[in-house]
Amino acid sequence: MRAYWAFTKKELMESAATYRLLILVCIFLLFGVMNPLIAKMTPQLVKEFMPAGMQMVLPEPSAVDSWMQFFKNVGQIGLAVLAILFSGMIAGEIQKGTLVLMVTKGLSRTTVLCSKFTVSVLLWTVSYVFCVGITYGYTVYFWNADEIKNLMPALLGVWLFGVLLLASDLLGSVLSKSSYTSLLFTGGLVAVMFLVNIVPKVQKYNPIRLVSEPSGLISGSLKLSGFYTAFAVTGGMILMFLLLSVLVFRKKQL
């Protein structure tokens, strides 16, 4: 356990030194400010750039629009940034040769994986909480948020999908010696999810629902009970990826 905490501390310090933490927090803080502001200003911008003489009745922006903007920005750009930043969790250590030295001195490979995954989830969680908090504050300031439904489950779904991407990055990094291959592995996983989602009978099991349909949850057009299976499958995939990472990494030649 002492080795786990020591390696985790080392990973946290390295994340700060390499500006990974700073980049992640800054991007999600920016999203937190942008989400409600874009929802607030969009109707005005549309009117400004509308051709002369043309009239269009636009609905007044609401708290729902702010959170829809949140799920659009974070669920697409934010998660892509997350996957890119952590794509070389193990591959980078192998390429630098630092991991070989630590393992030969008795550091458990399982400890390495657990520490890497813990730090990545921690940084993702901190950045995500900042983004949610800022979006929530501005949304409550501009609008009445009483109309929002199932906000916490919708937010939890996006966070859980982010953890799934991190677990996929970890497995991809273990399977290869390149961060690019790891990123392709995660990108391929997401692409398969989108393709499988075409089949109606499979949709309720697909983790991609957690990031593609949260707007339906907060608007009330979709029921929360329809997402329970997707939550369970996502959790199961995370555990499976972590287990596979441990099994593969134990036999991997460094």
Automatic annotation (TrEMBL):
Pfam families: ABC2_membrane_2. This is Membrane protein, putative. It comes from Anaerostipes rhamnosivorans. One of its GO terms (molecular function) is ABC-type transporter activity. It comes from the Bacteria. GO terms for cellular component: plasma membrane. The keyword Transmembrane helix applies. The keyword Repeat does not apply. PANTHER family: INTEGRAL MEMBRANE PROTEIN-RELATED (PTHR37305), MEMBRANE PROTEIN (PTHR37305:SF1). The chain crosses the membrane at residues 21-39, 74-92, 113-139, 151-171, 183-200, 227-249.
